[in-house]
Amino acid sequence: MSSNALHIALLRPPILHILRAAGFHATRPVVLDTLVDIAARYLTLLATKTASYALTNHNDVTPTITDVRMAMHEIGALWPQISMMEEHIRQEEDMRGVDAFIDWIKGEGNHEIRRIAGLTSEPGEVVDIEALEEKEDFLTALKKKHSKTGEESRYQGTVLGIPAEDRPVIIEGGPFESIQAWEANMREKGQISKPISIPDTSSAIISSGSSPLSEI
């Protein structure tokens, strides 16, 4: 499975939960695929704009809340709100878009999706923020369910796990542990006069008169 197909598959459950929270109990596969594609494109656009603002504002790939806010304003998530340039000229901060976005998130229209996500409580109860931080998401719980040896060991080096450490490839069946050690030993014995290199055939292909590229 390619990384793009994997990311699309991981985005399906949240979209299904959103449809469930909106009152839909069934949908056609083509409708689900369309909604997943729209959500993926929107998230990709938001992430791209945020990274661009992070590099422009402080030359760093790690975004700040300001970078996210500027990206959300550009793609139309914060409205109505003037740009940061206009705020600088007027010497005042316009929070109408941010306030409207927060009101929309906490409004009655999103009450059911917050309930499904475990972010709401029954009347008289208080939401424990620390308990929410320790609560596992569906993907983490699913990985632990299908991993008998531990999540880190099974998924290490994949998109679902922690990065793998770079380790040299050990050659078995001989006294040398690497190609470099074998090559150095052969040079000492005089059996190899120069390092083994792969000839560059790209220049020959480009200069050839029969190459299709020369006809373009």
Shape: extended
* Structural class designation: mainly alpha
Low-confidence sequence ranges: 201-216
The radius of gyration over CA amounts to 28 Å
Residues in helix, %:
40-55%
> CA-to-CA gap between the ends?
36 Å
Largest sheet: none
Order of helices and strands: HHHHHHHHHHH
Explain what this protein looks like in three dimensions:
The protein is mostly helical. The protein has helices at residues 3-21, 29-58, 65-74, 84-90, 96-106, 111-116, 129-134, 138-145, 151-155, 179-188, 202-207. Mean pLDDT is 78; it is low at 201-216.
Output the keywords.
216 residues, mainly alpha, 11 helices, 55% helix, extended
Summarize the entry for a quick read.
By secondary structure, the protein is mainly α. The chain has 11 helices and no strands.
Helices and strands in order:
Layout: H1 3-21, H2 29-58, H3 65-74, H4 84-90, H5 96-106, H6 111-116, H7 129-134, H8 138-145, H9 151-155, H10 179-188, H11 202-207
